[in-house]
Amino acid sequence: MRPNDRLADQIRPIKMTRHYTAYAEGSVLVEFGNTKVLCNATVEENVPRWLKGQGKGWVTAEYGMLPRSTHSRMRREASSGKQGGRTLEIQRLIARSLRAVVDLEAMGEMMITVDCDVIQADGGTRTASISGASVAMADAFETLVKSGKLKHNPMKGHVAAVSVGILGQDILCDLEYVEDSAADTDMNVVMTEDGRMIEVQGTAEGEPFSRQELNVLLDVAEKGIADIVKAQKLALEN
Amino acid sequence: MRPNDRLADQIRPIKMTRHYTAYAEGSVLVEFGNTKVLCNATVEENVPRWLKGQGKGWVTAEYGMLPRSTHSRMRREASSGKQGGRTLEIQRLIARSLRAVVDLEAMGEMMITVDCDVIQADGGTRTASISGASVAMADAFETLVKSGKLKHNPMKGHVAAVSVGILGQDILCDLEYVEDSAADTDMNVVMTEDGRMIEVQGTAEGEPFSRQELNVLLDVAEKGIADIVKAQKLALEN
Amino acid sequence: MRPNDRLADQIRPIKMTRHYTAYAEGSVLVEFGNTKVLCNATVEENVPRWLKGQGKGWVTAEYGMLPRSTHSRMRREASSGKQGGRTLEIQRLIARSLRAVVDLEAMGEMMITVDCDVIQADGGTRTASISGASVAMADAFETLVKSGKLKHNPMKGHVAAVSVGILGQDILCDLEYVEDSAADTDMNVVMTEDGRMIEVQGTAEGEPFSRQELNVLLDVAEKGIADIVKAQKLALEN
Amino acid sequence: MRPNDRLADQIRPIKMTRHYTAYAEGSVLVEFGNTKVLCNATVEENVPRWLKGQGKGWVTAEYGMLPRSTHSRMRREASSGKQGGRTLEIQRLIARSLRAVVDLEAMGEMMITVDCDVIQADGGTRTASISGASVAMADAFETLVKSGKLKHNPMKGHVAAVSVGILGQDILCDLEYVEDSAADTDMNVVMTEDGRMIEVQGTAEGEPFSRQELNVLLDVAEKGIADIVKAQKLALEN
Amino acid sequence: MRPNDRLADQIRPIKMTRHYTAYAEGSVLVEFGNTKVLCNATVEENVPRWLKGQGKGWVTAEYGMLPRSTHSRMRREASSGKQGGRTLEIQRLIARSLRAVVDLEAMGEMMITVDCDVIQADGGTRTASISGASVAMADAFETLVKSGKLKHNPMKGHVAAVSVGILGQDILCDLEYVEDSAADTDMNVVMTEDGRMIEVQGTAEGEPFSRQELNVLLDVAEKGIADIVKAQKLALEN
Amino acid sequence: MRPNDRLADQIRPIKMTRHYTAYAEGSVLVEFGNTKVLCNATVEENVPRWLKGQGKGWVTAEYGMLPRSTHSRMRREASSGKQGGRTLEIQRLIARSLRAVVDLEAMGEMMITVDCDVIQADGGTRTASISGASVAMADAFETLVKSGKLKHNPMKGHVAAVSVGILGQDILCDLEYVEDSAADTDMNVVMTEDGRMIEVQGTAEGEPFSRQELNVLLDVAEKGIADIVKAQKLALEN
């Protein structure tokens, strides 16, 4: 039995609070159960140097964890003098996922940076970041449309992500920390709102996994992502 | 006239939300108007190497700003590879202020680290950090008393802080960003709950200031700090 | 038509030169066509500090590219002062893949570090690194068995990896650089020699991919990996 | 009784040696008793990038301690790879203090950097740095006036600084190291030559201090600074 | 008796493999016995910022050791975050040596960077690097001549280097690792092909050395370098 | 004609001021004409970790230049975050030179660190550093002998150094800056007081140099070093 009597393929309660902070062009506090990530989207009217003069835009992301977002305190990356490998890996994943649903040509020479800062970590912070960042980015683009700087919102649809895993005999959706740390296989799946895949990253922490298990993991992920997309759309309607 | 019709010696509305996050031994979201700082206190049952074997405890602090806590995005310090001079200066100030109200001998060989992370910045983040950290630290010490690891709470009282400044002809308490950036003189005052001074840091950004002006600044600070101490006590009673 | 008339599901010619350097306990130059990676395995008779006293061993990996392994010169990471995100991501992947086929308990308190240094890069350097490192690690373990420091080789079997991708309408195995840089989807698959999966990392660079495409990608990867495992076994027999 | 029979409100013997080194536009070795700081002012005919095109000048400062300026050797900051928080705090203070007495508009697009390097440290290095740097800066501006690059010296007057403190029952001026390390309260005061305040930084290391004590501290500081300004003027007359 | 029955003034067998990698404009694997260094020369059609607009070219070099090029594994410099003093010293020496035989004016505003990466280290890696880099640079210049970007090869001749040393009573040429680590005096000599000196760097590790010993060291070095120049010319003829 | 009518083989006026600062166990301000270097020797009663338990001592050195020791201001290395290659090269040279005249076994497990900080640079700072550091180290060892921590001074004699060079047709001793920057060949020679060589580092900046020129360079260096040794002995007699 999962914590809080969750079913194997059931995601945690999702809450998306838009306009959580006052200055960012898009600001969403996303909660998956006890995992809480603040996603702030910033618009800048220029692009990185290597992209200048091509008429295209860019979307990037940064990720960080507050030192005491976790059960025991982690060292602050600003103090240790560099971002760790895990942090760099996650922020590259978030950025790729966001760019996959944006028409960069249609953006013009603008840049959106989405900062995903983990306030509280109970598993699935990278997938929550992607799911929340998609909404924050949508708000940022709407700001640009309202101010006349863009004619249309260049997003092709939402992007959402979920973690799935194999824990003993069970294939579970949206693992929380106690499940994640005990799982044999952990997989992060990022999809467009129409159910196509942007990223699939599966890792066998213990036993290798089979094609058949992979298929069930993806079935479960598809269902979970469909629920997350619903939550994204609901949040943007309010 | 100040924004929101504030009087010259009036502080902004204060809100202190305890237990804001789930894992820290003390966790307070402190708000002074639009300035919001999350203060998480962590207890560790050891001390820095240079203090080992002396039977004394230690209190330290770290400070950071989320990249988009500000009107325009700041570069993430973890990404630029070091904490800037302003950050180091502020976290040293917070730590000294907290230690001033703790009996370190009575703590035994324990350490408390208070992380002050600015969620939204509208002026006065360092003084809000001190005022909120005092409450988070109090909660952390209570945790240790309840678990039997300490017999008594080693805090000698609260510590609170406020910024005051000279803007044109006016001497103002608890400056918000638009006031702070236009002020001629900016002063941060840290006091114990019984009204004695722990730190006084006044800087003339424009014209130098006189002894008489300094006296009015301190009068105004004393009044503001008395109000903050009331808010701290109220928060801890709930 | 692919370069050198390769079939869509055909891997490049593989060459594995053991004992390529003289001092490492295992040293393999692995070549996949024009991609050449030197994999040196080092044995140390201690473990990282966090693992001490548990009676277990550890396997780790580092990855680097010579500055002119690529078409245009890349900046030397030692000179720029840090390893980039891509490097950290790849060396974490290599290390996880190697650990997945080793019985760490059976190793005792020993550590193997495999350095994968790219001499020439023509696509697929991370998968070539994994495939070559498996052989270098096998040689290192044999050294320990021969010297009596281990009773049995603690490897459970080989690990091999290949990249697959979607380029236009085609699903290709073992992409070389010109294919890789034009592909819509790029997937790295790491498997045990018995065909179970250790890592699956698929990324849509252009269009998202479907479940059906994912299935063909994995079919192609399985076939390619079977050929690589044959090459690994052949190399170790000589 | 203080060392060398100093009175409570008496500063140490001051010595200011101008033209101490040969190449800097202003070069002053300032001595307060055993504290010796070399202040070298450099003129550059450009400004930091963020100030370009505004027709204004800039004054900045850097601070360092020779490793064996202190009783026991300190680690060289160049070797440890960064300037510590204390160093950054001090050099920011020196720079603000110097800018407070310069008409930046009247400078035109020029920059003065004053390097304050501590040759021997016996307390009060930051205040000695400010007091000496004011003279070195004056010499540098005179160089510019003599060469015709500036019409008038843009300094509005001298800036001088002193430390004061509470040691037991006594309120002392210009603390040397043995006094400073035992003091309950330490305050650095920076004033213009006409007696107005630029910076006031008081810290209770032990017991908090009262308004009344603060007033006596400032009285003592005013008197000390008046003596330092006399020494500055005398040095420049020679 | 030296290893492999070498005579005191005899260099190790030299092998120079040109075009060792495919992309560099010059690529030479140089072997002195068991010492193997890969020298890759890169042409870039611009110069460092400080040289722009002067119509001159530049030649620079970087040096690195693969972590397991040595008997026991060295820490990877990219991972430790900086190049050590020895590395910086060596790459400055290589670069100076190469520039000494190039007419920088005749190059025009081009830059050549030679990366010397040690594959296997058995003593004399810096001198092998210089000797191999000279050939790689020659190939790079030939590429520029063939493509019409330069009219003539601006090299004035070859540069070659050898280490010599005093081991007990013997003065030896081209020391290998076991000799080098036991030597009292170690000297690196860099010469032009016509026998004039570019660099002489002699260090007494144990006993100081006399003028007479210095003279014999240089005699032996001259002879060794003449043999190396022959090998360079032979390699370029093939 | 050389500046100040110096003869070709004549060194500049030397001044060695012992006890220049108050806290270091040895403190010498050494001046060669306008070149001024402060050499502070620190005694510590422990050794680096890699040497512990061997009963031997260690001597090391650090080198730095004050930012405005030079004609135009150099960037402070503490601020740029690392010591440059030139700095590292020089401090390694100083340390090797000092160790060459110390019986490390006789020192016991003690360490001497000599900090050489350049106050004013007019050529020859590294050789002045060595010559002054030898005297500072002698004073530090005398301190240990006087306090009974060592029975005998473990120095085998003095070490001194000088730069020599070829400028046009002239071979000059102890080059000052204007000579050094115009010289074709620059050579630093480090010798024991009995005239044997510890280091010889000659570099052709322009034309390569011949064996005959090298011999004259060394003749001139021997003479200059004999004069420096006299100055060292004289300083220690006072």
Automatic annotation (TrEMBL), chains A, B, C, D, E, F:
Key word Lipoprotein present: no
Enzyme Commission (EC) number: 2.7.7.56
Keyword Translocase on entry: no
Reaction it catalyzes: tRNA(n+1) + phosphate = tRNA(n) + a ribonucleoside 5'-diphosphate
Transmembrane segments: none
Top-rank taxon, per record: Bacteria
PROSITE patterns: RIBONUCLEASE_PH
Any GO MF annotation of the entry: 3'-5'-RNA exonuclease activity
Keywords: Nucleotidyltransferase, RNA-binding, rRNA processing, Transferase, tRNA processing, tRNA-binding
Pfam hit, one: RNase_PH
SUPFAM superfamilies cross-referenced by the UniProt entry: Ribonuclease PH domain 2-like (SSF55666), Ribosomal protein S5 domain 2-like (SSF54211)
GO biological process annotation, one example: rRNA catabolic process
Residue intervals of the Exoribonuclease phosphorolytic domain: 10-140, 159-224
Binding site for phosphate: R86, G124, T125, R126
InterPro entries according to UniProt: ExoRNase_PH_dom1, ExoRNase_PH_dom2, ExoRNase_PH_dom2_sf, PNPase/RNase_PH_dom_sf, Ribosomal_Su5_D2-typ_SF, RNase_PH, RNase_PH_bac-type, RNase_PH_CS
PANTHER family: EXOSOME COMPLEX COMPONENT, EXOSOME COMPLEX COMPONENT RRP41
NCBIfam families attached to this UniProt entry: RNasePH (TIGR01966)
Known function: Phosphorolytic 3'-5' exoribonuclease that plays an important role in tRNA 3'-end maturation. Removes nucleotide residues following the 3'-CCA terminus of tRNAs; can also add nucleotides to the ends of RNA molecules by using nucleoside diphosphates as substrates, but this may not be physiologically important. Probably plays a role in initiation of 16S rRNA degradation (leading to ribosome degradation) during starvation.
Family: Belongs to the RNase PH family.
Complex formation: Homohexameric ring arranged as a trimer of dimers.
Name of protein: Ribonuclease PH
Source species of the chain: Vibrio caribbeanicus ATCC BAA-2122
